[in-house]
Specification:
The chain is an alpha/beta fold. It has a single domain, classed as Vaccinia Virus protein VP39 (Rossmann fold, 3-Layer(aba) Sandwich). It contains nine helices and seven strands. The protein is globular, with a radius of gyration of 18 Å.
């Protein structure tokens, strides 16, 4: 499964006006379980964060986390980095239209080569590392880009079924992934070797979260790859299943998962 064609289709639909773009962010935040986990952790960090904190969203994509963080504190400066030029241009245009060009700046860069010229307080990296082969180079760049005491927050698939891979014969659900998922000990050791002083990890997408993902994301995406006509049916599909997905997401975020197909990682410099 390749997400990029679907992303481009969604982009054409929701990028026509700032109002639709904000609606798109809202839908992503509600449907994507990883967004629930990441936004909760950012809010916890924000309690003791500097008033004028600087933040790097590494692999910022559509910009939903950049927008979320800009709403939390208008004094934070947020840099979004993405390897795709069209994504960078699109986001700079959108944030300029809504009057946030002084607070938010997007730049095109490859994370294997990018180091922030001004060290930042927080790096957010959501579902990016599974796309990068040379992860140690990126982890070292993250460490160089952080201030002492700064936090790196990562969301990535785990090796317990991440990318929808459950045994050696399964193929990744996402064709762009170069690895199916991280082992908790593996990513901890890599981050410590890269220069971080303290690392904690916990599982996301446990039993209930995995069910929510299948009904809120996997099955709809599979239908859309068959025919774009399923866009017409999606509202009716979600009317039926949306309340259940909300409940399952809530359970996953606030209940301890002994195992899960996703990992949330905190690494402090």
């Amino acid at each position: 499964m390749h997400y990029d064609p679907i992303k481009r289709t969604l982009g054409r639909v929701f990028n026509s006006t700032p109002v639709l773009r904000k609606l798109f962010y809202f839908l992503l935040n509600v449907l994507l379980l990883r967004s629930w986990h990441i936004r909760r952790r950012i809010k916890q960090w924000a309690v003791s964060a500097p008033h004028n904190a600087s933040i790097l969203d590494a692999g910022a994509g559509f910009g939903q986390y950049v927008f979320f963080m800009s709403q939390l504190n208008p004094h934070w400066f947020i840099m979004g980095v993405d390897v795709k030029q069209e994504q960078v241009e699109d986001c700079n245009t959108f944030f300029s239209k809504i009057g946030k060009s002084k607070q938010i700046r997007y730049t095109e860069a490859d994370l294997t080569q990018y180091v922030s010229t001004n060290p930042v307080d927080l790096i957010v990296c959501v579902d990016v590392m599974e796309h990068i082969e040379d992860d140690m180079v990126v982890f070292r760049n993250f460490s160089k880009s952080l201030k002492t005491g700064g936090l790196l927050l990562i969301s990535t698939p785990s090796d317990l079924g991440g990318s929808d891979v459950h045994d050696e014969h399964d193929e990744s659900f996402v064709g762009e992934h170069v690895r199916d998922g991280y082992n908790k000990d593996e990513i901890t050791q890599k981050l410590l070797q890269a220069g971080f002083s303290f690392v904690t990890t916990y599982y996301s997408y446990g039993f209930w979260g995995s069910i929510s993902w299948k009904f809120s994301m996997k099955y709809p995406i599979q239908l859309l790859t068959i025919s774009k006509l399923f866009f017409i049916l999606l509202p009716f599909y979600y009317i039926i299943l949306f309340p259940w997905c909300l409940i399952f997401n809530f359970i996953d975020v606030y209940k301890y998962n002994s195992k899960g197909t996703g990992l949330i990682v905190h690494a402090y410099k």
